[in-house]
Write a structure and sequence with these properties.
Length: 425
């Protein structure tokens, strides 16, 4: 049963093949909310109308582009405080020999209590993200339309224990409780266009659209706690690599921003066409105990699977107020509905931030933010970022909920770190 402690390492290895978590902002956008900020290039990825605002209106600029990054890494976890102690106790109970059904029943009650607790609280989710170098690239034409090319790699991996009852067979204990691993990697290339469509003395309305081409690879794996035929890390990594499925699709985003001197209001409709992708199924055809356990869990309805993943439409509203020179900005954004990511977690972000971006190469830009997932884990994050030399960005977010690690020390349930270097406003 000590296999449980290998799960985080196994998932990190699986996710490390590429990188940006679906439905999670990347780079300084994690701190700044989804409201477009002219001085933060990563916010141009949220609303398709935002690229138009990223080129300096007062200067004769035509291009703006990323250089390196953002590169980000994130981790979320459930309560793993006494995971090793719990699994040690469970191992002793399952591996023990009992002289009678009555004594096995006593051990069964204790083991079921442990496995139910582990299954409800123990999970690890990792994400890695990066923009392709020099992306995004924004070009504003002479008639003031803005074209955008964006390319990124993304990966997410989720591992948890699915707890089934532990049963008595003869005088031995057995169970279909299993490790469940879900991974996805996404190569995304986006093509967008935005333009001012109406102006008056109070401001202007900018509209935009973007097509995102996705090459999505999805993996699923089951490793039974009762399967001693191989190491769990090997079983999961082999299954994820051998049984993964890939498919491609195009998601269409549209958005608009009303911009005035000191405020702006925006709306984004992402994936309005709700593209479908092939989803990996759990392997039930091999001869191992893990495949047999997977088949039984699916038949009982405990393990649900589908051969399609739908990238659901999500609507986001954003609002920002700023000084006229855009150096100081207060931004908020809210996802109107929740959506599932490819590993089955729900996301609906509410975020707010305050930022300062100056014109000096010496005085750093600073920003702070708060965001909460209104669905799924319902975790909230405090975030902070700095911009050095007007180009180098460092952002850190920490979950406000805490758990205890194996040593009993309190640690945040999640954290994200992002680094980038891009062209200045």
């Amino acid at each position: 049963m000590n296999k449980l402690i290998f799960l985080p390492c196994c998932l990190l290895s699986a996710a490390a093949i590429s990188a940006t978590p679906v439905y999670q902002p990347i780079g300084s956008a994690f701190t700044l909310s989804s409201a477009p900020n002219q001085r933060a290039l990563s916010t141009s990825l949220s609303n398709p109308a935002a690229p138009y605002l990223m080129i300096n209106q007062q200067e004769d600029d035509s291009f703006r582009f990323g250089i390196l990054g953002p590169v980000s890494i994130g981790v979320e976890m459930g309560d793993v405080s006494d995971l090793v102690d719990q699994t040690d106790k469970l191992e002793d109970l399952v591996d023990a020999s009992y002289s009678s059904v009555a004594s096995a029943q006593v051990a069964l009650d204790q083991a079921n209590a442990i496995i139910n607790d582990i299954g409800e609280t123990a999970y690890v989710k990792t994400s890695l993200g990066m923009q392709i170098p020099f992306m995004p690239v924004i070009y504003k034409t002479s008639d003031k339309g803005a074209f955008m090319l964006d390319a990124s790699l993304s990966a997410v991996a989720l591992g948890n224990v699915l707890s089934d009852e532990i049963r008595i067979v003869g005088t031995d204990l057995t169970t279909d409780s299993s490790f469940i691993a879900r991974t996805a990697t996404d190569l995304q290339v986006g093509f967008g266009y935005s333009q001012s469509v109406w102006e008056n003395s109070n401001g202007m309305l900018v509209a935009g659209a973007k097509a995102n081409v996705h090459q999505l690879s999805v993996g699923r794996a089951v490793a039974s706690l009762s399967d001693d035929s191989s190491e769990v890390s090997d079983a999961i990594s082999d299954s994820l690599s051998d049984d993964a499925v890939s498919s491609s699709g195009v998601g269409i985003d549209i958005g608009a921003v009303w911009v005035s001197n000191n405020y702006q209001v925006g709306i984004t409709l992402a994936n309005i066409n709700e593209p479908e992708f092939d989803n990996a199924l759990f392997n039930t055809s091999c001869l191992s105990e893990s495949c047999a356990a997977a088949a039984r869990l699916i038949a009982s309805g405990m393990l649900k699977e589908t051969d399609k993943y739908i990238m659901e439409m999500q609507t986001t509203a954003d609002f920002a107020v700023s000084t006229e020179d855009k150096k100081v900005t207060l931004g908020v954004s809210y996802d109107v509905n929740d959506v599932k990511d490819v590993v089955g977690d729900d996301y609906q972000w509410a975020a707010m931030s305050v930022s300062y971006f100056g014109d000096s190469n010496i005085i750093p830009g600073i920003r702070g933010g708060y965001r909460k997932n209104m669905a799924g884990t319902e975790l909230d994050y405090a975030s902070f970022g700095v911009t050095l030399f007007k180009r180098f960005n460092v952002d850190l977010a920490v979950a406000l909920d805490k758990v205890k690690d194996e040593d009993g020390d309190e640690i945040p349930r999640g954290g994200f770190l992002a680094l980038s270097y891009d062209s200045a406003f």
